[in-house]
Amino acid sequence: QVQLVESGGGSVQTGGSLRLSCLASTYTNYWMGWFRQAPGKEREGVAVICSDGNTDYTDSVKGRFTSSKDNSKNTLYLQMNSLKPEDTAMYYCASVRVCTHRYLAAYIILQGQGTQVTVSS
């Protein structure tokens, strides 16, 4: 079974950047995405990469976050720039059944253990 391992989280100040990585134990051609969950809040789909390479982002991260995939390395990335305190959450990568951020969190096939992102003001 495929396993997903996230890395790259940390603590930054407002305006800073982080790059999250998600290493898959083996190649997967599932749609891949990122969701996040802050304490006391529901899961929120952040970004998804469709099989044709198209990406879809939630409005709050458009223009700041970029997701990409390197199939040769079985790795999914989330480049996060201009971070804001409201981006603070645990971030998870996942293989998903839908190619839209809106329903991503409800159609997870497999997810990683998560990596914490904390943005201070």
Structure description:
This protein is mainly beta and 121 residues long. It contains one helix and eleven strands, in the order βββββββββαββ. The protein has one helix at residues 101-104; strands at residues 4-7, 10-13, 18-24, 31-37, 44-49, 55-57, 65-70, 75-80, 89-96, 108-111, 115-120. The strands form two sheets. Strands 2, 4, 5, 6, 9, 10 and 11 form a seven-stranded mixed β-sheet that branches. Strand 4 (31-37) and strand 5 (44-49) form a beta hairpin. It is globular, with a radius of gyration of 13 Å. The mean pLDDT is 94.
Compact description:
The protein has about 120 residues and is mainly beta.
How would you classify the helix and strand content by structural class?
mainly beta
Overall strand count: 11
Q: What is the global morphology?
A: globular
Order of helices and strands: EEEEEEEEEHEE
Radius of gyration: 13 Å
Low-confidence stretches: none
Number of H/I helices: 1
Helix content: under 10%
Mean pLDDT: 94
Strand content: over 45%
> What is the quaternary state of this protein?
single chain
Separation, N- and C-terminal Cα atoms: 40 Å
Biggest sheet details: 7 strands, mixed
